[in-house]
Amino acid sequence: xxxxxxxxxxxxxxxxxxxxxxxxxxxxxxxxxxxxxxxxxxxxxxxxxxxxxxxxxxxxxxxxxxxxxx
Length: 70
Hints:
3 helices; 0% strand; mainly alpha; globular
């Protein structure tokens, strides 16, 4: 993984972690499921060197839905 991509992946994981915290605190997703998803996402980032955009979109979409419903 090149330096630019490593920084992008770290930034992506930081954003994903913030979204995950909000989803957990809102009760929209349980902690065990969230931990498993984040672990799998981190492994995918490590293996491919790419931030999986689909994971970000699913979590951010769930957060937006939760905010809209409350």
